[in-house]
# Entry
Amino acid sequence: MKPHARPQDGDLNPNFRHGMSRSADYTIWNAMRLRCYNEGTNGYERYGARGITVCERWRLSFLDFLADVGQRPSPQHQLDRINNNGNYEPGNVQWSLRKTQARNRRDTVIVEINGTPHKLADIAERAGIKSQTLLKRYYRKGLAAIPMEHVPC
# Structure
């Protein structure tokens, strides 16, 4: 078998080349691994230093990562961990738009209303006000600052 040929079922070929090393998906996969394991990489302090890891299946194989996550739907999508404190692993990773990802950060303010968590930024968007404006009001007045008519039931 030629080194660049795709291995057949049961045939392990360490020289297999997927031809995607210059693709955006490969770049994102490699950056994910670097920020979790390379102390010299920008972002390591927010990932690897916090104990965020990549599951072994993905860490060792770009093709397994791609099979599980799929190709990036558009150039606007970014890799996002659903549980921001969780690892890069099946069930905790999705492709998200910047707006969605921005609301899934460690510093996202979540308020509990009637036993249900709500992101302050989502309430601000429904109310038609800037999230920073509502955030300042919330820090000054607490729950009284939240326009309850814009909180989903």
Summary: DSSP finds six helices and four strands in the chain. The first strand starts at residue 77 and ends at 81. The chain has a mean pLDDT of 83.
